[in-house]
Amino acid sequence: MRTTISQIPVEYRHIAGFTLLVTYIVMLLGAYTSAIGAGLSCPDWPTCYGTWVPFLQPEIIANSPYSALQIFAEWAHRGLAMTAGVLIVGTTLGAWVTHRNTPIVKWSATAALALLPLQVILGGLTVTEDLQPIIVTTHLGVAILILLCLLTTCLVAYLRR
């Protein structure tokens, strides 16, 4: 199926590929957040210091034991993860509309979507349970499964065009 946005043809495979890329970047940003010791730099969940945008309140940054970079990394990881979640929903809906006769595209996208609520819960538990290793590891494991589902969706959509 082909639609146009400002005369640029957009196909399902492009949307699936973009979703895959954004999801991968979320994972990289999560790894970076962990590597710089910023996993708890937003001490509550789903907000960050009780607000959605902590940078609009300079006193939060000034009084935090974490640097602005650490807070930004964690905050950006959450925001980009939310964006990836919306893209996964769209990719799954698109699969059911444009690839009705391609079960692997439909079901791999659906599997990614089915794993998404678990991933959101694990993301919240990562913070509320103070980075318990089993939770952090499971959070990464589910992210890898979602990425694999999206990779399958994307590859088959490209091969079946």
TrEMBL record:
GO terms for molecular function: metal ion binding; oxidoreductase activity. Signal peptide: none annotated. GO terms for biological process: heme biosynthetic process. It holds the Pfam family COX15-CtaA. The keyword Signal does not apply. It is a multi-pass membrane protein. It is found in: Membrane. This is Heme A synthase. The lineage of its organism: Archaea, Methanobacteriati, Methanobacteriota, Stenosarchaea group, Halobacteria.
